[in-house]
Amino acid sequence: MNQLDMMATRDVLTRVLTRKRFFELGEPLFNASGSELYVLMIDIDYLKKINDQYGHDVGDIVLKTVANVIKDVLPPDAIFGRMGGKDFSVMYTAQTHEVSMDIVSDILKTVAETRIPLKDGSAVSCTISIGIGRKYPEFNSLGSLLQEADITLCQAKESGRNTSIFRDR
């Protein structure tokens, strides 16, 4: 992939897919998949506090580290993108709901256990909140499924953060 292609499809800071590229790859998967399709909306908890306490350079390190940690836990065929700011989305298929929830659990646990070293020898850690959407017939587009995941993300944040919410239909 040349540098121009990389800039058009990858977020400059985290190197995950851009929002635009996430949708370009996600729409065909949405249209071809049944109810085994899941979308996650992920938000880094209290990133503003980290930025305020340590500076935006550390906040950028947190964003990059969290993106790498999530990427390492995901199934190889997952689509992973930065939606903007401190929000990420993941799209994948899972054979069962339990397999999907295991993936979500692994993401939450791995991020929470990660210590991010700083230049002064100290380290910071963070947690994330995850909203989960599953493809059901009432979702007629990837956008509507992402909206469902965003609603459940808000519920996860309101329930105390460092958790995930899935609303079964």
TrEMBL record:
Report the CDD domains cross-referenced here: GGDEF (cd01949)
**Catalytic activity, as annotated:** 2 GTP = 3',3'-c-di-GMP + 2 diphosphate
Listed GO molecular functions?
A: diguanylate cyclase activity
Which InterPro entries does the entry link to? Answer: Diguanylate_Cyclase, GGDEF_dom, Nucleotide_cyclase, Rev_trsase/Diguanyl_cyclase
Which PROSITE patterns does the UniProt record give?
A: GGDEF (PS50887)
Instruction: Outline the extent of the GGDEF domain.
Output: 35-169
Enzyme Commission (EC) number: 2.7.7.65
What is the official name of this protein in its record? diguanylate cyclase
Question: Which species does this protein come from?
Answer: Desulfobacter postgatei 2ac9
